[in-house]
Amino acid sequence: MLIWNEFIKLLGCSKLDSEFINVSSNFNELPIIEESILGDRNYYSFLHSGVLFLLEDEVVDQITFYAKQDEGFSEYKGKLPVSIDSSEHEAVQILGHPLASGGGKMDALMGYIDRWIKYEKEGYFLHLQFNQNDNLSRVTLMK
Length: 143
Known about the structure:
Layout: H1 4-10, H2 18-21, H3 23-27, E1 32-35, E2 41-46, E3 51-56, E4 59-66, H4 88-95, E5 100-102, E6 105-107, E7 111-113, E8 115-121, E9 124-130, E10 136-142
Antiparallel strand pairs: 1-2, 2-3, 3-4, 4-10, 5-8, 6-7, 8-9, 9-10
């Protein structure tokens, strides 16, 4: 299993870079690969590992870790920057005041939009999402 800093280093990697190619062996799982309608994005879903890679123009743009079983993904078992059971308040206590926040309300078209907070880190963004019960549901690294 990769450690947190190794995931951060994957942001911006080409899908042809050995670091990205070796992700499958690190997870001991082959991804399900789906292409967006426009063809500019590819989704590499490691369902059993609870991790989704979003590649834009064949470069890793986002990595999402599922803190709870959802959308066919298992719960991610590795270490995250906050506890997998964190509430928003607990995450802010650990990470400080976020750069931006939103969600936490109903949308007529999309239904409930999870509450989220976003941090700017050195060279990347960290996005945390919380479900209606204020439990961490996803953590996303963004380029």
